[in-house]
Design brief:
The chain has 220 residues and is mainly α. The protein is built from eight helices and two strands; from the N terminus they run αααααααββα. The chain has a single domain, classed as Up-down Bundle (Four Helix Bundle (Hemerythrin (Met), subunit A)), CATH 1.20.120.450.
């Protein structure tokens, strides 16, 4: 865990200086978050998958808990999503991605194709959470500005995630690994289809943290 200690002594804090300190506090809080668990190369098990889901749940909740309506609706610039919009996209995506994963896992297993899976679990996480590459969300996952209350957003997020976690807890690791899916980005197994859901959440949690760190982000 990385900790950052900042000690500042000022004889007089102007409004402008106070704004800068608020930004520093936001950035410090983000840096001090726990480092995500490393899921080992092709050896991830059910427990490690659940652990990563729990990590991404906690990260999102920690970032948005207590935010005001003004903070949720603040946009860092033209064409950039607010935190509320990021949340709506995450919540919509949880259900859609889970349905897609279940559809793939409902197909016949193909253990003879396991060697075609080239991406490691950690590699998938790294690729998904790399914010240097941006993508356009499909129309059905575009936010509409639904969330103005962080408590409501958290409640909806947990409700969307609950069936995913229940499914994972009842899954068999060998069965997950034996299901192979073909995508334009490559070949993945059933475990990685589920892992993708949490990694997608982690990607947009990073986007939320970018908004929190914006110098114009409302103090309250």
């Amino acid at each position: 865990m990385l900790t950052l200690g900042v000690s500042i002594t000022l004889p007089c804090i102007t409004a402008k200086a106070a704004d800068k300190i608020a930004v520093i506090n936001n950035v410090t809080r983000i840096i001090e978050k726990n480092v995500p668990p490393v899921i080992l190369n092709q050896h991830g098990n059910i427990d490690s998958l659940i652990q990563y889901f729990q990590y991404t749940t906690k990260s999102l909740k920690d970032d948005i808990s207590g935010l005001s309506e003004a903070q949720l609706q603040f946009s860092p610039g033209e064409g950039k999503w607010s935190i509320g919009q990021c949340l709506e996209h995450i919540i919509r995506s949880e259900s859609l991605l889970f349905e897609m994963a279940k559809k793939e896992l409902g197909k016949a297993p193909q253990p003879n194709r396991k060697n075609e899976v080239k991406s490691t679990d950690q590699g998938l996480i790294n690729m998904m959470t790399d914010r240097s590459q941006k993508f356009q969300a499909p129309k059905e996952l575009q936010p509409t500005g639904k969330y103005k209350d962080s408590k409501v957003a958290i409640k909806d997020f947990l409700a969307a995630r609950e069936p995913v976690l229940l499914y994972i807890k009842n899954a068999n690791i060998d069965d997950l690994r034996n299901h192979i899916s073909d995508y334009p980005t490559g070949v993945v197994d059933g475990y990685q289809n589920l892992l993708f859901i949490a990694a997608h959440c982690a990607r947009h949690t990073k986007q939320i943290e970018e908004v929190l760190a914006d110098p114009n982000f409302p103090k309250k």
